[in-house]
Amino acid sequence: MRSKSSLYWWCQLGGWLLYGLTMLFFAFVFENKNNDVVFPRISITILLGLFYTHLLRELILKLELRPPVSKQKWNKLTAIVIGVLILFNLTNSAIVEWLQMFDPRNKASVEKRFLANLILDSPLILVWLSIYYIWHYVELGTTNVIQKVRLESLVKELELKTIKSHINPHFIFNALNSIRALVDENPERARKAITELSNILRSSMQTEKQETVPFEKELNIVKDYLALEHIRFEDRLRVEYDIDEDTLDQPVPPMMLQTLVENAIKHGISKQKDGGQIKVISDYTNNHHELIVLNSGSLNGNAGSKEDGFGITSTRNRLKLLFGDKASFDIRDTSNDMVEAKVIMPVQFAHS
Prior knowledge:
This protein is α+β, with helices and mostly antiparallel strands. It is built from 9 helices and 7 strands, in the order H-H-H-H-H-H-E-H-E-E-H-E-E-H-E-E. 23% of the residues are buried.
């Protein structure tokens, strides 16, 4: 608030001083006026200008006439401006008459001087008012833009958190079921499974506040998840990885790959009598990071239905929020009885 007040007074003093210097320049250079009247009258105009424009500002603030001005308040603003113009020019004329700051040979009546000042000096107040309102309209527009950006950022953050809140309980539930089946049969493997689940939970908690994580970290979560799922499916689940090591430091949405893999198991492997294969591919294609999850099975025409599960919907939403039109997601049947879920994201970092 103090900085704005200082800026206002610097603008006030600087603006009226510039006006005074301009009038002196025209008076002495172009009109060749060199008497004792010019400087005092310009000084009076500057002092009165400072006083009445500040009075006008105070009235605008008190009557809440700052931008944006509603239609109902335009009449009030017009009346205030006209009143200030009359007082400004009437006071100017009265002081000139009282102090006799005029050439006796060209003396005019107070009424004529007032009318002359009203015509010649009123534009000073109107120009000041225009600058004042333009300044505040620009400031209002800038503030609205900043607020809009902050609001969009907040909405984006809330949407991402909402999506994550759906993801985490989903894979935890399946993992706990797998561990429960091991407790009596294979305690040692159960302990290892608990460690794998602990790794997943720790990573999930750390990434809860992050929009993206390195692909390597996401891949490690998937490996732990598939190790847990292998307990449930045993030989019915075959896993293969085809990873370009240069893609390991690429940023990806946290838990996205794990969600796609979980979706592949739920709607693909679990519905196959003999199980099937899951293959995770990460590579660069056409200056983009291409991430593919292949699984045995078929879509059976359900690519756009609720049977897709939350994973497909969340993947599309998160990619749109994070990368806009620069990223894409597609899921389709391939010619070799496999379902391909493909994510294409922009490359974020240069690689040597």
